[in-house]
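From the pipeline queue, job 12 of 40. The input is one protein chain; the requested action is below.

Action: predict structure.
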Amino acid sequence: MDPARVACVELPALPLQLALRARPEWRARPVVVVDRPGPCGQVLFVNDVGRRLRIPIGARLPAASAIAPGSRPPARSPRALQVAPLILAALAEARARNYS
């Protein structure tokens, strides 16, 4: 890869995307990603189902659970977060070859 080239990639809701990719069966239920575990956790990302139920970004986890009782944040996967940049870099490099 040419070091003179720079790419900017927007990855909206990457933690949510990783969770739904790891557990596709969750797509039918409200899923939220919070900034920390426990009742003080603040909602950072909400999937489509959760948005339709009007779970707001910034809500605390107990409030999100009150709006959508079945909603729970996915367990954090340190391995997924370690591997994700490598996968994304490989995809970006493959895509860049198509445009060179």
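Job complete. The beta strands are 32-34, 43-46.
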